[in-house]
Amino acid sequence: MKEHETLEQRLHEQGVSRRSFLKFCAAMATMMALPPGSATAIAAALAKVKRPSVIWLSFQECTGCTESLTRSHSPTLESMIFDMVSLDYHHTLQAASGFAAEQAREDAMKEFNGKYLLLVDGSIPLKDGGVYSTIAGRTNLDLLEEAAKGAAAIVAVGSCAAFGGIPNANPNPTGAVAVSDIIKDKPIINISGCPPIPAVITGVLAHYLTFGALPALDNLGRPKAFYGETIHDRCYRRPMYEQGKFAKTFDDEGARNGWCLYELGCKGPTTHNACATTKWNGGTGFPIEAGHGCIGCSEPKFWDAGSFYAPLPAPAADVTTVAKAAVIAGAVAAVVAGAIDRGKKTKAQQSREKLTVDDLKGE
Amino acid sequence: MEQELLLWVRGTGLQIAAAVFVIGMVYRMLHILMLGRKKSLAAPRGSEWSGGLRTMWKRSFVTTKLSARGNFTVVAGFIFHIGFFITLFFLTQHIDLFRAVLGLHWPAMPRGVIDMAAVLSIAAMVALLVHRFIDPVKRLLSDYQDYLSWILSFLPLLTGFMLLREIGFEYITLLTMHIASVELLLVIAPFTKLAHMFSTFIARWYNGAVNGFKGIEI
Amino acid sequence: MSLDDISIKVADLHSIGSLDALLNEIASHLTRFIATGETAMIDLKSLPFSPAEYESLRTALGRGEVSARLETIGDSELYETHYSGVWWVTHYNVEGDVIADLIEIAEVPAILHSQPEDVRDGLERLQHTLSQTK
Question: Which of A96, A124, A171, C10 could be joined to A100 by an S-S link, Cβ 3.0–4.6 Å?
Answer without folding.
Answer: A96
